[in-house]
UniProtKB/TrEMBL annotation:
Binding site for a divalent metal cation 2: 64
Assembly and interaction partners: Homohexamer.
Designated name of the protein: GTP cyclohydrolase 1 type 2 homolog
Pfam families: DUF34_NIF3
Organism: Flammeovirga pectinis
């Protein structure tokens, strides 16, 4: 198994094109053509993680957080980032980061948090815009099933909980094949009109290349007429944060106790309690203060995330509980998500989860 084969599968879980502009997800060290011995998954990639990979015979590390965020001008070991990169290169270890692209997936980091809390009716908190497109093409009647099925196999036509969605309308297509053509229907130099079906189907941006390839390979015509149009519709499957509801409303204190135990939190920093039951819960793994207004807009009772600053707690304005459980604590189970995914896709690849707690924050209690 090559590194690039595992990367290609991870890209189906969280396409790299959905990472934020400031991010540096992707292959950071190593070559896609390297043969994988074992995989080590972790939240962070540090010197200790590299040493663990060496000790356990792993030459691919799949981490959530990129070890390199900004450009490196030198590699002389003056800080932990440079030392980690040097150690990885010296020991032929590939490092792959799957960061904000995994944060933005419907079944990614935040879904894992929701599952651990026990939330139902899970939804993206801040769905992305400008991610949906529509394909319109024209197909002869006897080929419509073949073309339609080819497009659906790529993932086109998925709308929410419905698969295989599209719209057909009948019409007449007209054309005149020239001397250089090889017409499927009709003869050179003679104008032809034939019954066709107009097929309209929606798809997500990352599928565009696959959609076009599927269309061209399944369509019977020599020259395929099609249009792709950007839609303004919200894509409810990709975006930041998530929210859901508890099966039964819980007392605030009891709920916070459960969160503290579930996530192994040293301390929960929170705004004043509101003396009401908790039913609707919003979450964001890592740093989520930018989603507070979104959590308030859907009338969540509590917003669970990390890295809130002092003045940002005031923004709750007595309308919602902010519960800062810590960056590491909120995202630590991402390693389980990645391990489970890799093992489900590759039966022959040995995948280990780190035993090292990379949380740089300690609590004196």
């Amino acid at each position: 198994m090559k590194v690039k084969e595992i990367i290609n599968k991870l890209d189906t879980l969280a396409p790299s094109m959905y990472q934020e502009s400031y991010d540096n997800a992707g292959l950071i060290t190593g070559s896609g053509n390297d043969i994988v011995t074992k995989v080590l998954v972790s939240l962070d990639c540090t010197e200790e993680i590299i040493e663990e990979a060496i000790a356990k015979g792993c030459n691919l590390i799949v981490a959530h957080h990129p070890i390199v965020f900004k450009g490196l001008k030198r590699l002389n070991g003056k800080n932990y980032v440079e030392r980690t990169i040097i150690k990885a290169i010296k020991n032929d270890i590939s490092i792959y980061a799957i960061h904000t692209n995994l944060d933005n997936m419907q079944h990614g980091v935040n879904a894992k948090i929701c599952d651990l809390i026990g939330l139902t009716n899970q939804r993206i908190l801040a769905p992305t815009q400008s991610n949906l497109f529509k394909l319109v093409t024209y197909v002869p009647s006897n080929s419509i099933e073949k073309v339609e099925n080819a497009l659906h196999l790529t993932g086109a036509g998925k709308i929410g909980n419905y698969d295989g969605c599209n719209f057909r309308s009948e019409g007449i297509g007209s054309y005149t094949p020239n001397a250089n053509s090889t017409p499927t229907i009709g003869d050179k130099g003679i104008r032809k009109s034939t019954p066709e079906i107009k097929l309209e189907i929606q798809f997500q941006k990352h599928l565009k290349g696959q959609i076009i390839n599927a269309l061209l390979s399944s369509h019977p015509y020599e020259e395929v007429a099609y249009q792709i149009t950007a839609l303004e519709n919200t894509d409810n499957e990709i975006g930041s944060g998530m929210y859901g509801t508890l099966p039964e409303a819980e007392d605030e204190i009891e709920f916070l106790k459960r969160i503290k135990q579930t996530f192994g939190v040293g301390v929960i920093r929170h705004t004043p309690l509101l003396n009401k039951k908790i039913k609707k819960v919003a979450v964001c793994g890592g740093s989520g203060s930018f989603l507070l207004r979104n959590a308030m807009s859907i009338k969540a009772d509590i917003f669970i995330t990390g890295d809130f600053k002092y003045h940002e707690f005031f923004d709750a304005e007595g309308k919602i509980i902010i519960a800062d459980i810590g960056h590491y604590e909120s995202e630590q189970f991402t390693s389980d998500l990645l391990k489970d995914f890799i093992e489900s896709q590759f039966e022959t690849v040995k995948c280990l989860k780190t035993t090292i707690n990379t949380n740089p924050i300690n609590y004196f209690v």
